Amino acid sequence: MNPQADPRGDAAAALRLLIVDDQPLIRRGLALMLGTEPGITIVGQAADGAEAIAQALATAPDVVVMDLQMPGTSGVVATREITARLPQTRVVVLTTYDHDELVFEAIRAGAQAYLLKDASEAEVLETVRAVHRGESRLSPAIARKVMQQFRQLAGGAAAAGPPAAPPGRPGPAHPLEEALTDKEERILELIAQGLSNKRIAAAVFLAEGTVKNYVSRIMDKLHAASRTELAVRAIGRRG
Predict the structure, then answer these.
(1) pTM of the entire structure?
(2) Contact status, residue 83 vs residue 112, Cβ threshold 8 Å
(3) Structural domains in the chain?
(4) What stretches in the chain show pLDDT beneath 50?
């Protein structure tokens, strides 16, 4: 398959992928590796954040593999712009850096997954497919970094004690959160496992639309900006 082939026609049902990295060898290598996989079509390659935004708006990819540290417009800015303007597009961060602030900013910007460039080809491929299914992917180490940042923000903003939770039910992880019901706690745990709404619905015997409503309610209660952030918060609540 030609990595730059037009995704329309016979490949219309393929996962449409945009690759963003300022290093040509990495960018082309990813295009060759992923573009030859069944069901994946590369719709574009970009060398910086500004080009990524322009190509994303022009091609409406299903998934963007995004580097963070690039000249000019950063990957974080590009992620925020793309996810805001194209809500159906998922972003997988693939970077050399795992600095706490970069990880936190990328997740807050809307990234659904965060991988380091030492990840295996199989891991990159599975992550791309997973986020396309509506799932999220964060390693425990990455999740801990983001959770630490959330806790620092919560500690700075907290002015009063958390609201009381019903007996036998976990209370909020910090004062800005509302207590969750048992059903919401169960769904949050499944989100933390990376499950899509469809798979959660099958696990808890609810309609997929009902699960979507639950997820929205949980996001409101925990003041989470994205599904990935919910997964991180769930990991933090375990501790």
Answers:
(1) 0.68
(2) no
(3) 9-140 (3.40.50.2300), 161-238 (1.10.10.10)
(4) 1-12, 157-173, 175
What backbone phi and psi angles, to 5 degrees, belong to 174? Answer: -150, 165
Calpha distance 183→193 (Å, rounded): 16
pLDDT at 237: 64
CB 76 within 8 A of CB 105: yes
Report pLDDT for 80. Answer: 93
Per-residue 3-state assignment (H helix, E strand, C coil) for the chain: CCCCCCCCHHHCCCEEEEEECCCHHHHHHHHHHHHCCCCEEEEEEECCHHHHHHHHHHHCCCEEEECCCCCCCCHHHHHHHHHHHCCCCEEEEEECCCCHHHHHHHHHHCCCEEEECCCCHHHHHHHHHHHHCCCCEECHHHHHHHHHHHHHHHHHHCCCCCCCCCCCCCCCCCCCCCCCCHHHHHHHHHHHCCCCHHHHHHHHCCCHHHHHHHHHHHHHHHCCCCHHHHHHHHHHHHC
pLDDT of residue 46: 97
Rounded-to-integer distance, Cα 177 and Cα 136, Å: 22
Query: What whole-number distance in Å separates Cα of residue 66 and Cα of residue 57?
Result: 15
Position 1 scores a pLDDT of: 40
Per-residue pLDDT, 196: 82
